[in-house]
Specification:
Elements lengths: L6 H5 L6 E12 L10 E11 L3 E6 L8 E6 L7 E15 L2 E9 L11
Antiparallel strand pairs: 1-2, 1-4, 2-3, 3-6, 4-5, 5-6
Length: about 120
C-alpha cells in the first residue's frame, strides 16, 4: 500500500498550521547603521494562522524577505518571539485594513498555546 503524502508534506512545512486570528505587534528590527542598536519600530499586524515554527500575518508594512523581526501578542505580559521574514506578498483581499501578507519563521519553536489568551 502506498501512503499518500499529507498536505504538510506536499508544501514542506515542519508542523501543522492552526487558524488563529489575533492582534499582534510586529517589531521591525532596524539596522544599527540607521538607528541605535536595540531600537525597534512597532507596527500593528494580525496573525492569521500559526504553527510551532512560524506564522502568517496581515499588515500594512512592507518587510523584505530575510529581515529579522520580533512578534508580540497585544494581550497580557508576553515576551516578543524572534524570527525572520521568509516571504512577502500583496494580500489577495484586504482584511482588517491590511494589504500585505508576511510569512515568518520563528528562530526557536513556540507552542501554539503561547498565542492564546
Amino acid at each position: 500500500m502506498i501512503k499518500e503524502k499529507t498536505h504538510r508534506e506536499l508544501i514542506g512545512r515542519r508542523s501543522e498550521r492552526e487558524g488563529l486570528i489575533i492582534r499582534v505587534t510586529l517589531l521591525f528590527v532596524q539596522s544599527p547603521a540607521v538607528e541605535s542598536p536595540g531600537e525597534t519600530t512597532p507596527y500593528p499586524a494580525w496573525m492569521i494562522d500559526v504553527s510551532t515554527w512560524g506564522t502568517r500575518l496581515k499588515t500594512s508594512v512592507q518587510v523584505p524577505p530575510g529581515q529579522s523581526v520580533a512578534l508580540a501578542p497585544t494581550f497580557g505580559v508576553r515576551f516578543p518571539v524572534s524570527g525572520s521574514v521568509v516571504w512577502a506578498r500583496k494580500a489577495e483581499k484586504s482584511e482588517f485594513g491590511e494589504d500585505t501578507e508576511l510569512g515568518l519563521e520563528f528562530l526557536q519553536p513556540v507552542p501554539i498555546r503561547y498565542w492564546r489568551r
